[in-house]
Each structure stands twice: as structure tokens, then as C-alpha cells.
Amino acid sequence: xxxxxxxxxxxxxxxxxxxxxxxxxxxxxxxxxxxxxxxxxxxxxxxxxxxxxxxxxxxxxxxxxxxxxxxxxxxxxxxxxxxxxxxxxxxxxxxxxxxxxxxxxxxxxxxxxxxxxxxxxxxxxxxxxxxxxxxxxxxxxxxxxxxxxxxxxxxxxxxxxxxxxxxxxxx
Length: 171
Known about the structure:
By secondary structure, the chain is mainly beta. The chain has a single domain, classed as Jelly Rolls (Sandwich). Helices cover 9% and strands 48% of the residues. The protein contains 1 helix and 12 strands; from the N terminus they run αββββββββββββ. It is globular and about 40 Å long.
């Protein structure tokens, strides 16, 4: 019995892990906040990833949704993610962080359907540095503990009426 459980665990982990430099299509189903992918441990101060915006992003749930990022310890204690929101007129990119348990988010770029983006989020001393194609943004940062890669998430209390898709390539 223990052997069967161990094999099942290995299969689940192997299938759920995102391998660097491989694209992975995330689907968050209508009414849900996250995909079924398991957390990925992360011990660095930087994450780089690529994604392309598609028409499933043109949904408004009155919240900042998350594309990708990393935590330094607990996600709601110290973390940085690239977020986005559709307000009915435009897709706005956000720097979305927690610093010592305090949430902070600020818009810093406009996203376009059909366009591909390269994002780099780095903790440099006491600042997070967000780079999204030609756009840059800096904000306060804290933390040093290992955490997780933070995968796509539909934020806030609301969800979407339709499925949301994002193809993500973590570098």
C-alpha cells in the first residue's frame, strides 16, 4: 500500500511540475481562482517569464488577477507578482506585492491582446524591480526566506464567467 501511495505521489508531482524553459498552458475554469497545478518551490530573488495576452483576458472581475511571481517565505507576507486587470476599456498591468504582510499594487503598463511579453521581477536590496518589455517599475521589498513560484490566479472575491487561459514560459 505504501508503495502504491509513493508511486501515485511521484506521478502527481512529476505531472504537476513546471519545467524551466517549457511553455505550460494554464486554464482557470469559470468560477475558480486557480488551476490545478501544485506549488513550485523557489529559493531565489528573481523570476523571468514570457506570456502572450489573448481574448480570454477581456473579462472584468473587479480585481487584480495574477500572472506569475515569487514569494520570499509566505505569499501574503513577502511576495511579488505581475498582475493585471481589465476595466472594460483596457488591460492594465500591475506590480502586485506583499511587504511584511501589507498588500500593495500599482498600475505601470498597458497590455494588448495578441502581444507577447517578457517579464523579469527581481528583489534588489530593499526594492522589487519589475521589467515588462520596455516598462519598468520599482517598489519596496522585504524578505529573504525560500518560498514558491506563484502561478496564475484569479484574484479578489469574484471569479470569471468564462475560462481564462494563459500560456506561461518560466525561464
